[in-house]
Amino acid sequence: MDYREAIMAFVPGCEQEEADKRVICEAAARCGRTILSRECEAMHLTASGLVLDESHTQALMVWHNLFSAWSFPGGHADGEGDLLGVALREAVEETGITRVLPLREGIASLDILPVFGHVRRGRYVPAHLHLSASYLLVAPKGQPLRHKEDENSAVRWFPLGELAAASGEPHMAAVYEKLIGRI
């Protein structure tokens, strides 16, 4: 499904998502397809997946080197208009799992997330916003795990009740709690 269709089909579950959906739609209309790439420096679309085990009691998290925090796998659309495809690709790339499927096809949460200025691969990246589409994904436990060396340094399963505390990022704790409530 095209990113515009996926975002339009998303039904906000709270006031924050209503406002963020409106802002994301306005940004996409203004920026066109550049919203899918880092060319749009001030803000761009990203997709992430809360990867659940088959019992839906644990989630697979990565230690994100840039944010120094446990985080769900995800990343930039990099020109790809299929946000679910981006979330699935990122889950595989960042965790090493090879079998992962969507719990549901649609976006589970829309959020506008801040990213502070930082140096990446020797180049300064200015502060910007991630227009984040999050999905609920499912993967069987027991698959070999592997971290993606240029982005994270560990991968592990966490009980759902520990995600907010493990994250250490208050703005992400709210996203995880929202997603857990939508399983």
Task: Give the helix/strand layout.
Elements: H1 3-9, H2 15-31, E1 43-52, E2 58-64, E3 69-71, E4 74-76, H3 83-95, E5 101-102, E6 109-115, E7 118-120, E8 123-125, E9 128-138, E10 152-159, H4 163-167, H5 170-180
Parallel strand pairs: 1-9
Antiparallel strand pairs: 1-2, 1-4, 2-3, 2-10, 5-9, 6-9, 7-8
Attribute tags:
183 residues; alpha+beta; eight-stranded mixed beta sheet; two-stranded antiparallel sheet; 29% helix
Could you give a quick summary of the protein structure above?
The protein has 183 residues and is α+β, with helices and mostly antiparallel strands.
Describe what this molecule looks like in 3D.
It is a single chain. With 183 residues, the chain is α+β, with helices and mostly antiparallel strands. It is built from five helices and ten strands. The strands form two sheets. Strands 1, 2, 3, 4, 5, 6, 9 and 10 form an eight-stranded mixed β-sheet that branches. A hairpin with a 4-residue loop joins strand 2 and strand 3. The longest helix is centred in the first third of the chain and has 17 residues. It is globular and about 45 Å long. The two termini are 21 Å apart. The model has no long low-confidence stretch (mean pLDDT 93).
N/C terminus separation: 21 Å
| Oligomeric state | single chain
Strand fraction: 25-35%
Number of strands: 10
- Main sheet properties: 8 strands, mixed
Rounded Rg: 15 Å
Helix content: 25-40%
Q: What's the helix-strand series? A: HHEEEEHEEEEEEHH
